[in-house]
Structure formats: structure tokens, C-alpha cells
Design a protein that fits this description.
About 30% of the residues lie in helices and about 20% in strands. It is α/β, with parallel strands linked by helices. The chain binds iron/sulfur cluster.
Amino acid sequence: MKVRLFEIFTSVEGEGILYGTKTLFVRLAGCPFTCFYCDTKESLPLNSGTEYTIEEANELIDTNLQDQTYKVNFTGGDPLIQHEAVAQLAKHIQNKNIPTYLESSCFDIDRFNHVLPFMDIVKIEFKTKDSDFVDSEHYEKLIGHTMKCLESSVKSKKTTYIKIVVSSKTQLDEFKKLIDEIFNNILKENINGFVIQPTYGISEPSLDLLLNLYDVVFPYYIDVKVVPQLHKFIGAP
Ligand code: SF4
């Protein structure tokens, strides 16, 4: 089996509930989606990065893995594009007793379930309609897959949290609809966090909008947090 890696590096986690932790990022090549705020556009082509055998990729991971690393993130692109390879690499990390972490838009429940046994922490990212993730015709179908991934992660008792990127284009009524749907499907006790992440450098949301979005989530999940991408403030990748 082969895998295309775009890059591998150690940095400070700048997103989500584990911001500030020393993390090895394994960035997989390839993502077919079109979020307008995507900050990893160079890794979107399926033929970007470098191709390795699984053994070569595991060696690369071992070489780059520093002492005191808190977790290893599988990111992209979208790591579910190469789900079979990701499962193999994550298994290799788990054998070292280092937590594995999945960052994905969770667009396919079958691919998700294939990697899930090898993940300890799962960030479920719901895309808003105005993200341009996909066209409006395919949006509901993809959100349906993300919802199933959320349910599957919770059922498997993984450390699971939700992230939603918001921008000045985010519509409050659409956002509310999405939040209603999420909490109709899961119990608040079963997730470990809920992060609203403002876009950075492009169509940034106003503070008023952020507070309005926060107010939508709060009645369902009192520990909701607005967390910007902190790594951008310290110039980290
Ligand atoms: S799903 Fe992620 S990697 Fe793909 S276009 Fe959207 S932001 Fe970029």
C-alpha cells in the first residue's frame, strides 16, 4: 500500500480543545472540496506531496516524532481520502502509546468507520452551507454523513468534539438549523467540547456575529467556546 503525504512537522496545536499541546502533524495529500477559507490549498490536489510506502511513511513518522509529543494529528487535505493508509499509520502510532487525532470534514461514514478504531481523539467538523464546501445540491447529503460520523464516534466512546468554522457570510438561521440537528442526534454529555472557530484573514466575522452564534449553541452546550486559530498568532504552521 502507498500513501501520499504532503508534509510532516512538529508544532503547537492551535485549534480546538487541545490548543497549546506539542503535536506531530501528518498532513495527507488530497481533498476534493472547495471551502472558500481553506488555508491548506496546496495540499488539495490528489497528486500533491510525495508518495511513500507505508513502511517508509512509518519511518518518516518515527524520525520526526520528538520527545514529549502529546499527540499525533492526521490532517490534510482530508485524511479520509486515503483512509486505508491512515488506518495503518495510526495503528503504528497507537503501538507507541501516543494518542492519535483525526481532523476531517467527516464526509463519508464508511471511510470514517474504517479509521475510527485507530483514533483516540476525533474532531468532527461540520461545514456551514456558506463555506462553499460543496454546492447546495450536495450539502444535505454530506452533512448527513458528518452526523453519522459524530454518532459513530460517540458510540465508540472516543474523545469527541465538534468544530464549526464561521465567517462574515455565516447565516444565523442556517447555523441554528444545523445546531438543532446536531443536538437532536446526540446528548451534550457525550461530547467533550464545542468550538466555534472564526475565519482568519478572509471574511472574518464581527464580534457581534460571533456572540450571536455563541448564543445559539449555549442553550444546548454551556461550555461552547469561540477559539481562533492560535498558531497563526505565533507564526507557527
Ligand atoms: S475540507 Fe478542509 S482541506 Fe478540504 S477544502 Fe475544506 S478546509 Fe480545505
